[in-house]
Amino acid sequence: MKAWVLDAFGPPDSLVWRDIETPRPAPGEVLIRVRAAGVNPVDWKIAEGGLARLFPCKFPLIPGWDAAGTVAALGEGVEGFAIGEKVWSFCRKPDIQWGTYAEYVAMDAAAVAPMPASADFAQASAIPLAGLTAWQSLFDVAHIRPGQTVLIHAGAGGVGSLAVPLAHWAGARVIATARAANHDYVRGLGADLVIDYTAEDFARAVRRAAPDGVDVAFGTVGGEVLARSYETVKPGGILVSITDKTDKDLAERLGIRVKYVFVKPDGAQLRRLAGLMDQGILPAPEMVEMPMAQAAEALAHSRTGHVRGKIALMVA
């Protein structure tokens, strides 16, 4: 098969498109013929060595954790899938090496699910990592409930554009941050209030809208934005971060809870997300489709931090 390969950590233009042995599905695995690979910020971070402290990284290394495609082969003991069936998966493995910027990827069947009937390959490839991140943060950790107020940063981004409609569906009042140009888009996703973080202090704006503080702050942006988000949470509320580690000492002084979330593969939750997409509850994000040949350009674009929706690399 052909794949984008790194022989050492480096910038996006270090990727080399070359022939590599097609994987064979081990027992319990599904071999996916990749039709679209979703692009996420973690991909360029992996390429540059940014996750080497968290995961064993082996070379040659193929980046990419999101895939949508068809079942090409089934490993021993795998049931419930058919050859040629359209599937999607968050393909994070214990070791970082065999990713989705390739014509084929093998993944544990427990992390694979049928694609939403309403989505094409590009749209489906955009969802797994971001959708599972939003789901696990909002429901498994924050346990959001109807009537609560939820702050979601970067409402037009990859995770935020899925978290906003999920929180709206759950019956929460949704406050999101976004640049002014994205306000209509984010309101259309279900946000009740959108704050232009470039024009005003978002923490003060949140406190004006929710004087007692929010029940849940979802930190999809790190650094100073995450640091200021602590002050937006009401006593007894929770701050969930998917970027930086949380400050438990500060949280204790403020009387709030904090949790850092690193998303896990989960085929059952992908089935839930597929159902919500097919019901029209979870809209597909805006897509930028690029040919797989432009992987370096896609990573460079992702690195800017200003992608509206998601990027998909398409495999012919």
From TrEMBL:
GO terms for molecular function: oxidoreductase activity. InterPro entries: ADH-like_N, Chloroplast_QOR, ER, GroES-like_sf, NAD(P)-bd_dom_sf. Residues 10-313 form the Enoyl reductase (ER) domain. It holds the Pfam family ADH_zinc_N_2. Signal peptide: none annotated. It comes from the Bacteria. This is Enoyl reductase (ER) domain-containing protein. It comes from Paramagnetospirillum marisnigri.
